[in-house]
Amino acid sequence: MGEVLAFADDEAKGLWEQLSLGCTEISGHPLLRREIAGLYGDVGVFTFAGAAEGVYCALRTLIEPGDHVVGVEPCYSPLVTLPRAFGADLTVIALDAKRGWQLSLEEVERAFRPKTKLLILNFPHNPTGTVMERGVFEGVVELARKRGAFILCNEVYRYLEIDEGSRLPSIADAYEKGIAVNVLTKAFGLGGLRVGWIATQDREFLKEVGEYKLYTSVFNSAPSEILALIALRARGAILKRNREIVLGNLAQFEAFMGRHGDVLSWVPPQGGPMALVELRLPVAVETFARELREEREVLILPGSLFDLPGNFFRVGFGKKKMAQALERFELFLGSLEQRVGGAMK
Question: What value, to the nearest 5°, has the Cα angle with vertex 147 and ends 145 and 150?
């Protein structure tokens, strides 16, 4: 927090020092909403207690029982579990490692129906780290426009594209019925603030979604709003710092994968601090992940947590202690290969 406060300009410093701990505006502090809106074009903004609340309120507003919704797997699980819970008829498109985890426009077209109400996306993608190809993005927007469907895109890893030139427009800017969800947790590394938002050109939808907040968090934490304002005003410095951490760690992980290509394979990520890796040893990935945590205190996530078939696991490289984690991971792999090799002889 001290690092964030050091970025404060005179106005924000005054807001912090004179802050009242009373109730805040339901939609978010006006200066905070103005700063968020500056990330986009002509959009409206409503803030929430994290991205999860924004996703919940948006889907609760849009979906009625029987509505047809298209989603993508693997994914951040509420993006498919909530539509089902709200009574949607959900069609899921499965991403495939053989196609580099890329979304296929043809599959989206096949999944759409004449009355499809909503397409749910998550790019840069969690857990694969892929960035949608620009032509596919433009095709998806045009398809939704022809059908009158909404597109909700969970954009929480935006600004962490490995190649900044691959960064797509926000869905809120690209499409009049696009709904962008973002948060200070991921690219900004400020999860403890619990400040997220929805941005959209559809003001009527924004009014409706805001009404659901009256049944969830009601309003945001006053200190979090001012810290969020300071961070967003200093976003250039904060994002530069975080990108350097991610890119440095990715280089270390690429070298690690190069040393263990006989037992591990992957599609190198294009965005975000994560990637999916396939384990090529005759060991269940759930067992592999559990033993790695128990023996070396290194955490990975089995693909089964994302309903992903096969022997995949997700790694994250957004922390500063990447070198230590990889050293422990390497020791574990060496030990495991000896045990598995001995058992197979």
Answer: 65
